[in-house]
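Onboarding guide, step 5: your first structure request.
Type a short instruction followed by the sequence, for example:

Predict the 3D structure of this protein.
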Amino acid sequence: MEKHMNRRDFLKAGSMSAVALTMASAGLGSLGTGSSAMAAGPNKNPFFGFGPLQKDPGGVLDLPKGFQYRIISEEGDKLADGRPIPAMFDGMAAFPGRHHSTILVRNHELSGNHDYPVEGKNPYNKEATGGTTALVVGPHRKTTAEYITSSGNIRNCAGGPTPWGTWLTCEETLNRGHGYVFEIDPTDPEGSLSKTPIRDMGTFSHEATGIDPETGIVYLTEDQGPSFFFRFLPNNREQKPGALQEGGTLQAAALEEKPSSMASDFDDGQEFSIVWKEVDPEKPSDDAIKKDCIQFSRLEGAYFAGGVFWFDDTSAGDKNLGRVYRYIPATNTLELFYESTSQNDLEMPDNICITPWGDLWIAEDGGGADRIIGMTPEGEVYTFAENRLNDSELAGPTFSSDGRTFFVNIQSPGITFAVWGPFARRNAARQRQMGHAPPPASYAPQIPDKLSAFAERKGLTSLEAAAFHRHGMPIL
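The system replies with structure tokens like these:
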């Protein structure tokens, strides 16, 4: 990026180059409703969803035509060593294993007594029942091994994969001695790393993480009210197992308006930007309140892809139905991408991911049947899956490294699915495009004309201005 390129020019250039790369690297048949995509007409977009859901004869998981699933793990069944598979399946990530296998690392959001606790042999706290397991899934999409990777935690909710092949599992609790992030190496189950809290990442009700592979900075969400958006600057940026435990600096995001000595007019005399304020890792939420950092309602899922950190606020908005944000580190830009209203067909976003071909997938955690909702860089919205078994949330959406298999959980009773069918091929350019694309028109936050005009004057994107406005910045 040129040194003097402003934020708007950067976003415009990034979006245009992503579109060019996408069209150059992907043919017209990248997505379809069956085994092959339909040809696009002269005015039709070549990217679209997978068609209507088909009723599952088993009454478990509805999927589009051409897709199928296999249940590869269920709570209460046996691990490789005979111990029971723990309950309350939640966040999950997939890593490449030997002989074309996939290793899934899965959280268990357990606290207190349960029929199926995580019964580890080397726990962080022997009285706590949460932790993580791993599944080795062969190329035939069948589980060949399943074992405990960490134990002795409380409410392992979400987390995030690292670029070096480990999993950060997050404790969603304020219990004394807990509320930490732990690093899990699936190749060293229940090793010393798994029971060593990353203390400088803070003691709070953790939800999810995402790591910028360019900088090694870790972004974190908090699941309590109010919630804060944090980042962790590691002392050791080598990006290897154990490096994060060497400490670092924890910061929380804030909005800043700086008076200008060059002009007295409010519109012309203010600069609006995100600033990061250092907070005490022992009491980061209290510190963030004192330092007037951005207060969210209840942050949940997060994912880093294509140079963008995506995260959602599950109960935010006038209807308490949720918002989705994206933070772009290269421009230090926070945008409100989606805001649910009574007209929007999406309720309480939770775990999220970016698909290998670039769509945003959102797992709902609402009051009724929960679904996986897809949004495309081209502005289309579609439903990929729906839980027909019960009202439990879908959790832990993740793809195998080759992009051919989608894995997802029903939280309770704990079930892990492998799903396959006519997925689009991998498209890194389209992932970057998603990071700068406008939201689908009916899902975009409502932005008054006056706010749009203000954004234009200040060099902000309209979605950035919406984020500032929703969080109390007096810009109108």
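Each response can be followed by summary notes, for example: Residues 1-46, 258-269 have pLDDT under 50 and may be disordered.
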